[in-house]
Amino acid sequence: MYAETLKHIRRMMAEDNLAPGDKLPSERELAERLGVGRSSVREALRALEFLGLIETRRGEGRYRREVGSHQLIDLLAMFLLENERAKADLAETKWLIERLLLALACRRRSAEDVDELKKIVRQKPIDFARFFETVVEAAGNVLLARIWRVLSGFAASFAPEPPLADAGYEQLLAALERQDPAETVAVWEAQRPSPLSKQAGHRLTNNDVHFR
């Protein structure tokens, strides 16, 4: 239900010509206008905030957000909201970007990044979000990082991902410390099996994406 509500709110924002900085109606007003429950409105607004299309100002309400001149995040949002294959494609794209970020982090990580990862792994239970955020920062690609955060936020609104096994973190850390992209990717694929779902003559393998 909330996915449909999200589409309706997105359409309403366009119809009302809400510009960056304009305030959205309250949850109650949106629920009455769209004829849905407030819980559906709340979840939809949460997803829009994850996508970077709106922001919440404490004590003031929610506002349309400026997403940048290239409109990349807006384009991603439109695709995710309107495409029937959105969830499958989202999982696929997020997994591929995570694999690429890990490979880049192997090449570019600093000694400080490794020390931070070791500190995270020593603290139980291990915080996956903090661990992978450190990997993302170590990868050193601001655009990929931004896309990943948007996709991760939206994926979390569907269902939270299970944590990795402690041994998986240890193996990833060891491979990152050795700066071995192939080993890092292999460990990641063992911990997070490929969600690639489209068959177009062959299945994408490690040979299709080079980490040299």
UniProtKB/TrEMBL annotation:
Chain residue ranges for the region called Disordered: 192-212
Pfam families referenced in this protein's UniProt entry, alphabetically: GntR
Assigned keywords, A-Z: DNA-binding, Transcription, Transcription regulation
PROSITE patterns for the chain: HTH_GNTR
Superkingdom as given in the UniProt entry: Bacteria
HTH gntR-type domain mapped to chain residues: 1-67
Signal peptide (from-to): none
Keyword Transcription: yes
One term of GO molecular function: DNA-binding transcription factor activity
Gene3D superfamilies: GntR ligand-binding domain-like, Winged helix-like DNA-binding domain superfamily/Winged helix DNA-binding domain
Name of the molecule in the record: Transcriptional regulator
Organism annotation: Geobacillus kaustophilus GBlys
